[in-house]
Amino acid sequence: MTDRHEPTEPPSALPSDLLADLDAGLLDPARAAEVRAAADRDPHAAAVLAALATTRTELGELPDPPVPAEYAARWDAALAAETAGPEPAAPSAEAGPLPRRLPSSDRRRRVPHRRMRPALVAAVLLAAVVVAGVLWTPREPAPLSLDGVDLARAGLAVRGDFDVGDLSDPAWRAGCLRAAAPPGVAPGAPLLGGRDVVLDGRDGVLLLLGTGVVGRVHIVVVAPGCGPESGELLSALTLGG
Amino acid sequence: MGDPSDADLLAAHRAGDQHAFGELVARYRNRMWGIAVRTLHHPEDAADVVQEALVAAYRRAGSYRGEASVRTWLHRILVNACIDRLRQERRKGTVPLAEVEPRTRGRDLAVDVVTRLSVVDALAALPAHQRVAVVLVDVQGWPVDEVAEVLEVPVGTVKSRCARGRVRLGALLGHLREEE
Fold first, then answer.
1. What digits encode the pLDDT tens for the residues B35-85?
2. How many CB atoms lie within 10 A of CB B15?
3. Average pLDDT in the A95-121 region?
């Protein structure tokens, strides 16, 4: 608690905002000289200017955080999608609608940060699980037919989907890519997305793979069962150069 | 022969060179990420905004007139995207700015350890326009006149936003006492 009889520092005649204007070079030369001269005679003002300098120094020492690889890959895929050209006005009825391209603003919309009490959260979760168990049983998504569909567009559209079974395992996928040997594709290429497809009447698995180069991605289709033991390449395409 | 300039790369992109835009982006991607993440204080939002800015720049390359440098043009797109995102979030009221208590004045060994995190949190407590100006001028070290060009405001406005922002930050970081 503050003792109201305790002597306090006399207030400075120079408010912090004025000193910050001086510090920022906002005052005209004559006014700046006047304020600086007054600040030189005022210990409080000198402390404020020192504090502003410390603040600027701390801001200047903030390093740029490294770009997370997943974001870099996402940006590469977005630019590769631009390189592939604009989307058609409407997909053909035969091919069915393509999986939704996932503009980032739609892909993730956070819900309002309302805090729920833990007991309420538990009750809601329990109810959701029970209802889901009764009303919904999981099923595999139908393979996407690529007949009559541009492979580049279909490949880019799977970004963010990872329905690729064993190929979601990096070691298994690397073995598959070694076996199938799509040209120019590193076995360790990061997976950006994938799903089951039908290509020219054959079942396959489409993989969208990063290259580490901005705006460049690989689209690879392999036969089902691709793995370290064997792998059959059905199609391969590199976008963005 | 040295590296192509930014303007050369953008011109090559407009002429159909498929590698040129990627090379241009590679020069600025880290900085753009730094600006976005410091301004928005949320990695997912920052990633979205950088992506929006890169795609917008790709699409708008044809309308670049050379009135500002490519770097300024590119960052203007980014900063506008950041400001739009902040406005959207504020309208929705979904992302309250961090409530940061001013740090107790005085330093000890622990203070230096936590300074960086505290500076990041304190930045998030600034009003959007002050935050953008401070990030560009003080964090990124851009000249004030170029920041004015990016933000399309007078130089004095940038200085004023920085001045107000530094006072607030100085208080939040415990270097200054808040004035009545």
1. 999 999 899 999 999 999 999 999 999 888 888 999 999 999 999 999 999
2. 8
3. 35
The answer to whether residue B172 neighbours chain A at the CB level (below 8 Å) is no
- Tell me, yes or no, if A1 comes closer than 8 A to chain B by beta carbon: no
Q: Count Cβ atoms below 10 Å from residue B156 Cβ, excluding itself.
A: 14
Per residue in A140-187, pLDDT tens?
A: 456 666 665 677 777 777 777 777 888 888 888 999 999 999 999 999
User: Does residue A215 belong to the interface with chain B, where contact is any CB pair within 8 Å?
Assistant: yes
| Of B54, B93, B139, Cβ closest to residue A75 | B54
As a whole number of Å, the CA-based R_g of chain B is 18
Count the alpha carbons within 13 Å of B99 in the hemisphere toward its beta carbon.
Answer: 1
> Rounded to an integer, what distance in angstroms lies between the CA atom of residue A186 and that of residue A159?
19
Q: ipTM of the predicted structure?
A: 0.83
Q: How many whole angstroms separate alpha carbon A207 and alpha carbon A217?
A: 10
Q: pTM, whole model, 2 decimals?
A: 0.62
B:60-89 residues touching chain A, CB 8 A cutoff: none
The CA–CA distances, whole Å, from A80 to A164, A216, A239, A240 equal 21, 6, 6, 5
Chain A contact for B55 (CB, 8 A cutoff)? yes
H-assigned helices in chain A: 16-23, 29-40, 43-60, 69-83, 104-107, 118-135, 151-157, 170-180
Give the three-state DSSP class for A221.
Answer: strand
Structure tokens belonging to residue B27 = 């020069």
A3: closest CA of chain B, how far (Å): 18
Q: Is B21 helix (H, G, I), strand (E, B) or coil?
A: helix
| Ramachandran area for residue A9 (φ above 0: left; ψ -120 to 50: alpha; else beta) | beta
Q: Are strands A144-145 and A191-199 parallel, antiparallel or unpaired?
A: parallel
Lookup result for tokens 């300039």? B5
User: Is A183 touching B (CB cutoff 8 A)?
Assistant: no
B146 CB contacts (<8 Å, ≥6 apart)?
Answer: B69, B72
The tokens describing B15, both together, are 């002429």
Per the CB < 8 A criterion, the answer to whether A143 and A196 are in contact is yes
Which of B30, B47, B50 is nearest residue A64 as measured by Cβ atoms?
B30
- How far apart (Å, rounded) are the C-alpha atoms in residues B103 and A30? 35
